[in-house]
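We treat protein structure as text, and this decision shapes the records that our systems exchange. Below, we set out a record of this kind in full and without editing:

***
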Amino acid sequence: MPASKVHLWPPTTSFSQGLAATTPFTPPSVEFLSGTWHVTHSSLPTWKKARNVRVELTVLNRSETGGRGAAGTDRLDDLTTYQPLTSTKLKSVHGVSKCSPGSTSSSWDRRGSGLSTLSTAHWEILGWNSSTQTISPRAPTTEEWLVVYFAPTLFAPAGMAIYARTAAGLSSQTLRSIREAFDELADRGVREMEVLGREGEGLVEILRDGARDGARDGAGGSG
């Protein structure tokens, strides 16, 4: 059976958003987002200086304004853990992500917790694949993955990342299909993040060397 084509959609802030209307986007459920994701590729400067980056999303009770996600909630506990390239110490960045106003479970606003309370970020899912749910159009494999866009902040440029369910990452076929989908995006800025990655400047592979086993917790990082 021939593999289906991967599609990616531009961010909601993109001038080309309307060009994607002919291919409807079905957002992932909150249940699907929940769990541990391994960051396999990214264009974000902070993550390029890190290794073994994991994002753990946990469903929270809905806020007082009511839920928008498929699970009846609009909030996710958002914990990122990683190791610096030159240290075995495990660092963490914690916050809560909430569905963006008027959006579905594909667009989120994150606020940090603790000393990072003033830190905010906006992230969106541009594409995804599940091993158990039927999505249209379906990606070529049953590997679970997310393609995530991060809007620019005062401290960081706009960025992209690929998340996978396993530290092993994605097959070469899946990565090739995702890269081909980037090439077809009407949004030039997002497309160039991936293209530059082929030269080591944009979306590049994040080191995953298994060194987290037995690592001790360290002070929280920034991000």
